[in-house]
């Protein structure tokens, strides 16, 4: 039975890596087959296998973002950034990268990239510099921003729901790492782009979208209110999944929209992939496959060494296997280690590992795949697997070292 479950998991991974277009369907199908094989599968108790809080957060946020995008909120934010740059294109690049980092902390990374990459390519043309380094920095900051909160990206949402850590706790532990890395990487990026400013300035009106709503600020305030409720979720005793779904329903109600109007904006492939991975992980746990890894790691009595092992191994595995499957496997192991007395620092180690590892290769995250596609579509240029990885290696290692220092401090102090 163990061999059969392993074969199913290996096939699922192969599709995730080599056939991403059908990976969601294949993973969900193989996951269902695996739970049927191990037995004990009952729809009445499906919540013990699938974390619906995670799925609710994703569906709610995807719906909210779809409405905000339709109302032109993100286009207006882009215009404000360009106005603040006062026509200085190099300054605009820096401001846009900061905006990418901050928005990616609360929005889907792919949405952030789709909004800002065309503007960054426009600034690259104005600066008369290669678009590729600018794209690399944007992708790095987007993935980095996704690490810093409980809703920044799907792996963090999964970790949040499994760890029972608070929304604020994620910000307290992960945001400092992100901000310090952002600051240092911006210094390197500015030095790399130190060129003479062109005489021409931005025509900000060319960025304006005709579909932008006059009430865009109202929708931004509603989104801000949702984030505030998330930060208070422990005091008001509501799960993030309920808050995001309620926020989405309020916006749909106010807009007099039905579910059909936004169904195309919900990433059903990601939801199906996550559900399939939950099924596969349940099967692996059912046959005690994680017991060996837990047994080996539980012998490590030095907390910061254990945290660093989790961090660096998940970082490099994510680079080649992608973040979601690595997150699910490591979470199953970490939860058992914590039951045996390991520190909760392991959750932060995993969040940082899969988040930063998502920068390592062009297939490590959906954000990278979309960014590469935009480079081909808008600039008719390509970044090979090797060139992408070489460009990302230095910032990934830098952020890895910074993260390691924080993890050591957290482990020693018990913070």
From TrEMBL:
It is a multi-pass membrane protein. One of its GO terms (cellular component) is membrane. The chain crosses the membrane at residues 50-69, 89-122, 134-152, 167-188, 216-232, 238-254, 304-333, 345-371, 391-412. Keywords: Membrane, Transmembrane, Transmembrane helix, Transport. It comes from the Bacteria. Pfam families: CitMHS. It is found in: Membrane. GO terms for biological process: transmembrane transport. Residues 13-353 form the Citrate transporter-like domain. This is Citrate transporter.
